[in-house]
Specification:
alpha/beta; four-stranded parallel sheet; 44% helix; flat; binds iron/sulfur cluster
Length: 277
């Protein structure tokens, strides 16, 4: 659980850049964790949402990437660009472009509002986002489809959507697995943990897609699951009548949040036992 290599690398890049310059601008939050973003802002990293808002750089591209137009705009304005796009996200972007160049209509399975998905779509002309069966029904069936997925999707979700695509008579369907192995490993570990606990806490940012997927996977195991940002959202009723708690965390959740949560949870248990004596 906790930080993946893409997030670690993005934070290292941001910290190094902030040490060398008085101000660095990040195009959207560096990662989907507000506590980390707040810490970085104290080091001089400012979040901006549009390149047009900037007269000077440098600009940092977050781990989940940005759309191609934004990069072009930054280059046109001759801003220094520091690219912290995760290698796995970059791979998904490149695969989408390659499929489009080979004549496929690119289909990106994922959340159309997620910046990573917008970034992938922007690199493949005519690409379509599929977020449910209704989106598949709108695709003309004489197409050759090249399918990629948002990197943080659960494998089961990607496979289910691919199966729905294959159930329709498209001319050709080519699927490239762009899912992140780090996310898959966290999901598998969380699902395994669900077997031996009777309540699960999933720690991570509200907007973190992989944290939400973790919480969803735990709920599907039938275990009461709480997606919390940190200890401040904990409530005693979460553990009332429960004996064993499991804790996991998304790929953008820092160790200090996990450690504090576990320590506090153990204290609750100690206090509870003391009360019973
Ligand atoms: S979860 Fe995977 S794709 Fe996303 S930043 Fe981490 S390593 Fe990269």
């Amino acid at each position: 659980m906790g930080f993946c290599r893409g997030v670690r690398a993005a934070i290292d890049t941001a910290v190094r850049a902030s040490r060398l310059r008085a101000r660095v601008y990040c195009l959207g939050p560096l990662i989907h964790n507000s506590q980390v973003v707040d810490r970085l802002s104290r080091m001089g990293l400012r979040v901006v949402h549009k390149v047009e808002d900037l007269d000077s750089g440098p600009v940092l591209i977050p781990s989940h990437g940005v759309d191609a137009t934004t990069v072009e705009q930054a280059q046109t304005r001759q801003l220094e660009v520091i690219d912290a796009t995760c290698a796995t996200v970059r791979h998904a972007q490149n695969q989408a472009l390659e499929l489009q160049e080979k004549g496929y209509r690119v289909v990106v399975v994922g959340d159309p509002d997620h910046p990573e998905v917008k970034g992938i779509v922007s690199r493949a002309r005519g690409a379509t986002v599929v977020n449910g069966p209704h989106d598949i029904d709108e695709l003309p069936q004489n197409l050759r489809l090249g399918v990629v997925g948002q990197t943080t999707l659960a494998q089961s979700e990607f496979v289910a959507t691919v199966a729905q695509i294959l159930a329709r008579p498209f001319r050709e369907v080519r699927v490239v697995n762009t899912l992140c192995g780090e996310v898959a490993a966290r999901l598998a570990a969380a699902v395994e943990l669900c077997r031996c606990v009777d309540v699960m806490f999933v720690l991570g940012g509200r907007h973190s897609a992989n944290t939400r997927a973790l919480a969803e996977a735990c709920r599907k195991q039938g275990v009461p699951t709480y997606h919390l940002e940190d200890w401040s959202s904990f409530c005693y009723r979460h553990i009332e009548g429960r004996r064993i708690a499991g804790v996991t965390a998304g790929a953008s959740t820092p160790d200090w949040i996990i450690d504090e949560f576990v320590e506090q949870l153990e204290q609750v248990e100690v206090a509870e036992l003391a009360n019973r004596k």
